[in-house]
Amino acid sequence: MKHQYGPVFAGLLLYVAISFLFSCTKEGPQGPPGNDGTNGTDANSNCIQCHSWNDSLVARIFQYNSSQHAAGNATWASPQRECAPCHSSQGFTECISTGQFMTSSPVYDAAPVNCRTCHKIHTTYSYLDWQLRTTVPFRARYDSTVTINLSAIDASSNLCGRCHQATAPNPALTNPTSTFDTVLITSNAWGPHHATQALLLAGKGAYEIGAAPFSQIVSHKDNASCSTCHSAYGQGNRVGGHTWKMADYNQYPSLQNTLACQQCHSGAVDFNINGKQTEIAGLFQQLKVQLASADILDTIPFSSSYMLLKGDISVINPKTFPQKTMAVYWNFQLVYADRSNGVHNYPYTRDILQSGIDYFSSLGYSSGD
């Protein structure tokens, strides 16, 4: 009978080797005891200041996730250096630091606006991380010599205004009150871009082409901030709070955050306080009709947020316009992109539209009123 000692011997050898290894490995001296996480001096207790997952934090995340900022629908534009500062989180934070209007390089793998975009997340690892990245006045993109300050009530508006403003006209108007000087337009998308709210709020950005200066009565800027209205009285993930929405026209058209208005306008049932929105809508329609009659405005919107110059206007097919005509068109688009129908600054908006109507009426174009 043949004995099988090989496997037994191999196992015994392995056991001896392991025993020898452990006998040569001694435990080091015990370190000092750590903090218990309750005295506020260690990283864990700092983290708890924000990462407590209390209802207030959960509500803000819930609201933000339904916001247009979270959707990030325009992050695709971030590889364009002039677009990245507003269409990506990385671009926004970089340009706050550098003070430039464009990033140093294209931004790929762009993150949408998020908590870190606006707040100093993981800087001090304390509740101070919720502080805003900046609240100082900012330069206007349409004219870098102009400084805008929206801090009469709450300097946080200066953070919002850095993106919610017009881009610079390209080409620029050198003599916007002239009917003789012309400008060569190379794109039918010429205009102030999409979000102009901070400019209207501040009473800035429009070409003054009338006989009198535009009104500088800016009651909302001097008595409210962006957050006063847009962050007030969060109602689920539809309006208010970190949705920053005043209404939810897509899902619940009747849901308007009039509670925000009632802070100052007692008894307000909609945004049409004293009929001012109706008035502005009427003036806007009159100027729109005139621009269309003059074959300047394409009456079929390119998208829900942008109207274009009429015709196939491009670099290879440019078109010449009187500068004053383009000044009126710029002003019209400035109001259109604001989207508030006069709420942000009724007097300034009224004067913008009326000056355009008066100009086109002098050329013989009916406003259709």
How does the SSE layout of this entry go?
Layout lengths: L5 H18 L19 H8 L4 H10 L3 H4 L12 H4 L1 H10 L16 H4 L19 E2 L7 E2 L8 H5 L20 E4 L11 H6 L16 H5 L2 H5 L16 E2 L3 E5 L1 H4 L14 H18 L25 E4 H16 L7 H17 L7
Q: How would you explain this protein's 3D organization?
A:
The protein is mainly alpha-helical and 369 residues long. It has a domain at 163-224 and 264-369. 36% of the residues lie in helices and 5% in strands. The protein contains 15 helices and 6 strands. It has helices at residues 6-23, 43-50, 55-64, 68-71, 84-87, 89-98, 115-118, 157-161, 197-202, 219-223, 226-230, 258-261, 276-293, 323-338, 346-362, and strands at 138-139, 147-148, 182-185, 247-248, 252-256, 319-322. Strand 4 and strand 5 (252-256) form a beta hairpin. Helix 13 (276-293) runs antiparallel to helix 14 (323-338) and helix 13 (276-293) packs parallel to helix 15. The mean pLDDT is 89.
Assembly type of the chains comes to single chain
Shape call: globular
SSE succession:
HHHHHHHEEHEHHHEEHHEHH
Binned strand content: 5-15%
Short overview:
About 35% of the residues lie in helices and about 5% in strands.
